[in-house]
């Protein structure tokens, strides 16, 4: 069985207000992205890792991240693209060139606290469903608004989830969805469609349903300086 983690680390991290990209910022003296990479490295389920970064960071990622931290499962560090989905497509294309895979685990490098338990529960489910995404139930009431910021509707809170990563799919399903996205990519901006996660790609370009699997409230995405404080608090609690 070949299960590949595509770890996305090509973002600019503009909301961090820092000259250092967030995935390289130090959290307890370790680059943020290393935390999730080490979890995938130690996982019995994950066989390979494709690390997708910006073109200018490929060499430094190989030297300062992969080699320095002994990440032997990282088969390649490749350049991503302008949009998140461009980077995912780059990872899927790299896997295609190397003979394909059984399942892919697509994960944001800015989520340092993925756990082996989350990976195992996703894997157990994706074998049956072919599309499983980590998520947590919303603690807050969610409002749907219109373009003028007026409330349109209030979904039942019991049915609302906050989506996380990893997002896990059979490789063939992910490839089918992203190949169709590629064909229609030029029209996305014209239609005002913004692709925000992989589940959306599968939902939009295939007829396959996506199942939500409980993640963890600690599986946060580090996006702002305040998130770094929260991440440090989570680490200190674990020590």
Strand and helix map with partners:
Blueprint: E1 3-9, E2 26-27, E3 30-31, H1 32-42, E4 48-53, H2 58-67, E5 74-79, H3 84-97, E6 103-108, H4 116-129, E7 131-137, E8 144-145, E9 151-153, E10 161-170, H5 171-191, H6 198-205, E11 211-214, H7 225-238
Jot down its keywords:
239 residues, alpha/beta, two-stranded antiparallel ribbon, 11 strands, Spore Coat Polysaccharide Biosynthesis Protein SpsA, Chain A, seven-stranded mixed beta sheet
Description of the structure:
There is one protein chain. The protein is an alpha/beta fold and about 240 residues long. It has one domain (about 5-239): Spore Coat Polysaccharide Biosynthesis Protein SpsA, Chain A. The protein has helices spanning about 30-40, 60-65, 85-95, 115-130, 170-190, 200-205, 225-239; strands at about 5-10, 25, 30, 50-55, 75-80, 105-110, 130-135, 145, 150-155, 160-170, 210-215. Strands 5-4-1-6-10-7-11 form a 7-stranded mixed β-sheet, sandwiched between helices. The radius of gyration is 18 Å and the shape is globular. The model has no long low-confidence stretch (mean pLDDT about 95).
Strand order of the largest sheet: 5-4-1-6-10-7-11
Global outline: globular
The total number of structural domains is 1
- The strand count comes to 11
| Percentage of residues in strands | 15-25%
Radius of gyration using CA atoms only: 18 Å
Question: Under the CATH scheme, which architecture would be assigned?
Answer: Alpha-Beta Complex
């Amino acid at each position: 069985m070949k299960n590949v983690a595509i770890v996305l680390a090509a973002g600019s991290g503009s909301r961090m207000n820092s000259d250092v990209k967030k995935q390289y910022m130090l959290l307890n003296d370790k680059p943020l992205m290393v935390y999730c990479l080490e979890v995938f490295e130690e996982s019995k389920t994950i066989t390979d890792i494709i690390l997708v970064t910006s073109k200018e960071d490929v060499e430094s990622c190989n030297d300062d991240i992969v080699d320095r931290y002994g990440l032997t499962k990282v088969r390649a560090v490749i350049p991503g693209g302008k949009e998140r989905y461009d980077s995912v497509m780059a990872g899927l294309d790299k896997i295609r060139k190397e003979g394909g895979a059984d399942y892919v685990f697509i994960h944001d490098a800015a989520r340092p606290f993925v756990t082996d338990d989350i990976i195992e529960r996703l894997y157990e489910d994706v074998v049956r469903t072919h599309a499983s995404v980590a998520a947590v139930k919303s603690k807050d009431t969610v409002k749907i608004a219109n373009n003028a910021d007026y409330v349109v509707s209030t979904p039942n809170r019991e049915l609302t989830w906050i989506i996380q990563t990893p997002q896990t799919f059979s490789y063939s399903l992910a490839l089918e969805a992203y190949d169709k996205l590629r064909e229609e990519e030029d029209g996305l901006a014209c239609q005002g469609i913004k692709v925000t996660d992989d589940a959306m790609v599968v939902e939009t370009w295939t007829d396959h349903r996506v199942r939500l699997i409980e993640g963890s409230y600690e599986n946060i995405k580090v996006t702002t300086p305040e998130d770094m404080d929260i991440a440090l608090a989570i680490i200190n609690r674990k020590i």
